[in-house]
Amino acid sequence: NAGVTQTPKFQVLKTGQSMTLQCAQDMNHEYMSWYRQDPGMGLRLIHYSVGAGITDQGEVPNGYNVSRSTTEDFPLRLLSAAPSQTSVYFCASSYSSGRFSGNTIYFGEGSWLTVV
Amino acid sequence: AQSVAQPEDQVNVAEGNPLTVKCTYSVSGNPYLFWYVQYPNRGLQFLLKYITGDNLVKGSYGFEAEFNKSQTSFHLKKPSALVSDSALYFCAVRDRDNNNDMRFGAGTRLTVKP
């Protein structure tokens, strides 16, 4: 049981490049999400999904796309990287929200992205 | 919308002394409250949560937190700090009426000195 797996762990991009951060979980969790962590700002929600085929925007969605074709995978795409997207990105998952919104969210180990 | 405040960026304690990391929250309804810990270059690890019931919640590694509805607080405590407790701690809140949005505080860096 690997939990939440993110790749790559480190990435350097040039401004304007695109890339995809991969996230997979093997816990059969319906809910998956992406956060970014910036100094002094905690974690901010980018996008989330409550199940395959369903995604929605979080607090800071601009510049990012997501899709959820399977229960296991939830990739985050940077369309045209900007220096403001330099951050640490965390993927997370839990059993379904809804009336179980007290469920614990489990995090991946993070992806460190630098845009130059 | 819900929000979380962690009023201290940094908390320093001596090993063996009690520690407290403060958290206050704001939600329109009833909250679910969580504490997570982050070690350097790692993801967040779940420590404990308040869902309902007893206001004193016990979690991993000897940590506990007390839900205080009147003060809208959920402070993290430990009776005797260890050097290995040094890490970044995050409080988070989820509004029971807005099930998909979990908000995190900015984090508090705890340093336990030998």
What does this structure look like?
With 116 residues, chain A is mainly β. Helices cover 0% and strands 50% of the residues of chain A. Chain A is built from no helices and 11 strands. In chain A, strands 2, 4, 5, 6, 9, 10 and 11 form a 7-stranded mixed beta sheet that branches. A 4-stranded antiparallel beta sheet of chain A has the order 1-3-8-7, with no helix packed on it. In chain A, strand 5 and strand 6 form a beta hairpin. The model of chain A has no long low-confidence stretch (mean pLDDT 91). The mean pLDDT of chain B is 92. In chain B, a hairpin with a 6-residue loop joins strand 10 and strand 11. In chain B, strands 2, 5, 6, 10, 11 and 12 form a 6-stranded mixed beta sheet that branches. Chain B contains no helices and 12 strands. Chain B has 114 residues and is an all-beta fold.
Percent of residues in β-strands of chain A = over 45%
End-to-end distance of chain A: 36 Å
Whole-number average pLDDT of chain A?
Answer: 91
Report the major sheet of chain B.
6 strands, mixed
Order of helices and strands of chain B: EEEEEEEEEEEE
